[in-house]
Amino acid sequence: MIAALDPARYDVRSIEISRDGRWQLPRPVRGQLAGAAAADPTAAASTDGDSDAGLPIPTGGRAPDPLGEVDVVFPVLHGPFGEDGTVQGLLELAGVAYVGSGVTASALCMDKDLFKSVMRDKGIPIAKSATVRRWDRDRVESPFGFPVVVKPARLGSSVGISIVRAPEDLADAVALAFEHDEKILLEEFLEGVEVECSVLGNESPIASLPGEIVPLSSDWYDYSAKYDEGGMELVVPARVSEEALARVQELAVSSFVAADCEGMARVDFFVRPDGEVIVNELNTIPGFTSTSVYAKLFEASGIPYPELLDRLVQLAVERHDRRASLRY
Ligand SMILES: Nc1ncnc2c1ncn2[C@@H]1O[C@H](COP(=O)(O)OP(=O)(O)O)[C@@H](O)[C@H]1O
Ligand SMILES: [Mg+2]
What we know:
Bound molecules: adenosine-5'-diphosphate, magnesium ion
Strand content: 15-25%
Number of domains: 3
């Protein structure tokens, strides 16, 4: 990603967060440093940078001062403590422009249970689900028969998710999901094609061509299919009817707007055998390398990766400037 940012326009600094939560202060990343440090999430703690470079995540509502020196922050963090509004809140407090959705939309889309409530309210088709809280964990039954999908409410990367095909396997799947969250979902199992669509924009968002996910290393889109080399194939455009393609694009934009998203998101769908399109989830910080689905779909739609990055940075600045004119 850093390599695709035009050096004539951007002076890029990386801020890395180590597994123990320490922040590595902004520093130049051109040259050999970027790849190695960014590829290993534990690298920040061990990189021999400035001895005082690590700082703990601030508490008590004070953002780290060094963030004030950057014009735009591009968060490329997935899951809890990054994609869920927490880092966005920190950046709001710091008064810095940042790429992507704000606090509320980020938190909403991270929570599959609350996300569905909002989508239902706006008439956007989603899979039926039942929410189970920690205190009800010993009394779980499937309201949807079998197979049924069990998932943590707020995680990602397919971690903690099970497709349960027989009643005797339900308890284990529930226990697994509860290892990752205090709230879980039981969801009706949807047959069909998994389709993803990228969205870009603030007030008039646009949708990319929809792409079809073909898991190769597994019979569903699990962790290994997502992250192993050759784990999946992306087919663009998705092999569904013209009507279904158009419906995916329409729902990608309307769910993005319904969730109050800004900048970017990847909206994931199921297209059922009869052509019905169902929104599965919305990812406010999708995978973001040049070979990730988000970028590939826009590439196939005529927006090359460097231009995509430019537009996202521009959208961040535009939003920041617009908000600055509001009176509180
Ligand atoms: N209701 C469902 N029916 C069938 N498969 C599902 C269902 N929900 C999830 N899956 C499978 O699990 C994968 C991950 O689920 P998802 O809800 O997207 O969670 P994550 O946030 O971890 O990506 C999906 O890409 C799909 O392959
Ligand atoms: Mg998903």
